[in-house]
Amino acid sequence: MPSLSDFLYTQLVLRIPKPSASFTSKTVIITGANAGLGKETAQHMIRLGASKVIFGCRSPVRGEQAKREIERLLKCRADIITVWELDLESPASIRRFVDQANALPRLDVVINNAGVHVASYTVVYDTERTLAVNDIGTFLLALQLLPKLKETARKHGVTPHMTTVSSALYDIAKYPESRGDDMDIFAWFKDEAHVNLMNQYNLSKLFQLYIIIKLSAIVDPIDADNPNPNPIVINSLDPCFCKTGLSGDLTGAPKVFFSIFRAIFARTAEEGARLVVQAASAGRETHGLYLRAGAVQKYAPIAQDEKRVSYVWDQLCQRLEKLQPGVLTNIQAVKS
Ligand SMILES: NC(=O)c1ccc[n+]([C@@H]2O[C@H](COP(=O)([O-])OP(=O)(O)OC[C@H]3O[C@@H](n4cnc5c(N)ncnc54)[C@H](OP(=O)(O)O)[C@@H]3O)[C@@H](O)[C@H]2O)c1
Q: Which keywords belong to this entry (predicted)?
């Protein structure tokens, strides 16, 4: 967790420059692009020249609404934004989305943005929903998009980016230490008695970092002695605390408290999206790393626990393979 002074600095003082990297002729996928950070990220990238921006939205109606709004604002061509249905809680929906992505001529950027911070307990994929959406669904999709990113790198001599919108809150996640390291972590959280919803979001963001650390060590690891000719970049970032629809299902006193806190401290989603765009064009030196306030930030000790990184990665792989047998071959396919 950032210290109080760091939080106040990044929320109230830090100047976040408008991104200026070119996205000319790039094809981008943004999950959850109908709202909040995803929608603002799309606008920045279109301004910066992206030729195709695909919105992965669980509600095509909300996706089309956002598309029309952006086209009106930016006066951009109607063929730049395309809305595809994507529900991260449904392997069939993810599979359909991947089939469409595989038919694209190229794929330069994937923003794993869609996420939830829930106020009530439900079970999805045989675990608590926050972990299901932010980790299982997110990486069930992400793994299947890797081959297209890699193909684009090889065919076009570019460096595609897969950027995950994580959170600085990973650092205060409470891992169920006392249970030992041989339990099924996702099954553990299927039991409501084990779930503290305040912690679940933070834990899901910690797991995202564990997964990215492992995935980036397998796919195109940095090797100065043996540089990869067509690598991709897998990184993550904290976009600051921003005014968006996240935590929108709070009620009563927590809702009032959160609204006041947000009104005082939160940045606009447009500012947070500047950091997303920056990470999505940050280059190979950010492979496997986490950016905060516009720069690479060292992982906190909780994210550096190698045993746990491997353990959560293995647990995730088992879950993904169960949901979609053969899905892990996507990783083998991009290993060079
Ligand atoms: N806002 C912050 O302060 C902050 C800080 C750190 C990190 N983040 C991260 O930023 C990302 C974007 O969040 P946001 O703040 O922009 O919140 P948001 O306004 O609530 O947007 C979340 C997006 O995710 C989509 N989504 C949720 N569940 C989904 C599912 N099952 N399948 C597909 N899409 C789904 C939502 O779709 P619907 O519109 O259909 O619900 C929405 O488009 C999240 O990963 C969040 O954890 C946010």
A: Oxidoreductase
Q: Is the CB of 116 under 6 A from ligand 1?
A: yes
CA distance 38 to 40: 6
Closest Cα to atom 42 of ligand 1? 32
pLDDT the model gives residue 25: 96
pLDDT for 177 equals 74
Q: Which two tokens stand for residue 271?
A: 């500012």
Q: How many angstroms does the Cα of residue 301 sit away from the middle of ligand 1?
A: 26
Residues of the chain with pLDDT > 70, as a percent, come to 98
CA dihedral (10, 198, 287, 32) in degrees, to 10, reads: -90
pLDDT at residue 183, rounded to an integer? 79
Which one of the listed residues 205, 216, 236, 290 is annotated catalytic? Answer: 205
Please state whether beta strands 295-296 and 290-292 pair in parallel, antiparallel, or not at all (unpaired): antiparallel
With pLDDT > 90 as the criterion, what percentage of the chain qualifies? 90
Task: Name the residue at shortest CA distance from atom 36 of ligand 1.
Answer: 32
Whole-model pTM?
0.97
- The answer to whether 43 and 276 have CB atoms below 8 angstroms apart is no
- Please, which residues have CB within 8 angstroms of residue 127's CB and are 6 or more apart in sequence? 136, 186, 187, 189, 190, 319
Q: Which domain holds residue 132?
A: 4-334
Is the distance from the beta carbon of residue 58 to the nearest atom of ligand 1 less than 6 Å? yes
Q: Does position 3 have pLDDT exceeding 90, yes or no?
A: no
CATH number where 20 lies: 3.40.50.720
DSSP calls for 194-224: G--HHHHHHHHHHHHHHHHHHHHHHSS---T
